[in-house]
Amino acid sequence: FAPSGTSPNGRALALAAGDDRARLRPPPLFARDDDADERDGAPLPEGDGGRRALFRTTLSGGSAAVAALSWPGGPALAANAKSRTEGYEVRKTDAEWSESLTSTQYFVLRRGGTESPYSSILEGEDRPGTFACAGCGTALFDASQKFHSGTGWPSFAAFVDDRVETERVSQIQYQLGGAEVRCATCGGHLGDIFADGFLFPGTPAFATGKRYCIDGAALVFLPREGREGEGGGAEA
Fold first, then answer.
1. Fewest CB atoms less than 10 Å from the CB: which of 144, 168, 177, 202?
2. What pLDDT score does 197 carry?
3. Which of the 8 DSSP states describes residue 35?
4. What CA–CA distance (Å, rounded) separates 119 from 75?
5. Average pLDDT for residues 193-213, to the nearest whole number?
């Protein structure tokens, strides 16, 4: 991982032509975690899986290939081998994380899981405010950088300061398949970053050329008025 200040700040998924609300699920890519399926309440797909594979398939096969994709079973898991505990300011045991988070938050933040598209209420959140890490409360994204990508996950064009870190991958891998992003304070999995901001004219991503595609369960929304935060997970 490297601080996102020196890495691309976005993440992307290209969708089938004519239906940008299609709930597409990518083919296998990421390593699975056999313990996570019981916590999330849904079976994991056979083999590996992840949103990055959808982006890569889109680049090589076009929208027709994307339209033909299916993502049966449960959500995917990020396979990065870097510890989510060592070297981070906020550390807890696995049992402590399990106790303090909902099952969906735990699955995403601590197991590197991917929630189903359009399952988070934060995908449609448009009020001014800040999106913070659901694990440690670190402010990660300002609402001014959020936009509607049509992918089914909350999308952002930029992050707050150096509070997000990006997986170290080659430039070729990043351009073709993106990279994982984590909270720089607690190591929680947030989602992925892709270099397709150019696909979204009229949005903040068009200016940065990048997009963060973030799991809503990894975030808590703090309205500008300063009210209590609203979680983005699909379950309590």
1. 202
2. 96
3. T
4. 12
5. 96
Residue with tokens 């694990």, as numbered in its chain: 135
Q: Indicate the SS3 state at residue 172.
A: helix
Which DSSP string do the residues of 127-147 spell out, in sequence order?
Answer: SSEEEEETTT--EEEEGGGEE
Counting beta carbons within 10 angstroms of the beta carbon of residue 5, is it exposed (0 to 12), middle (13 to 18) or buried (19 or more)? middle
For the segment 145-174, what is each residue's pLDDT rounded down to a tens digit?
999 999 999 999 999 999 999 999 999 999
Distances (CA, A) of 129 to 7, 65, 145, 229: 24, 37, 10, 10
Q: What angle do CA 81, 195, 58 make, to 5 degrees?
A: 90
Structure letter (DSSP) for residue 104: H
Residues marked as catalytic: 213
Say how far apart CA 54 and CA 65 lie, in whole Å: 9
Q: Which two tokens stand for residue 140?
A: 């990660």
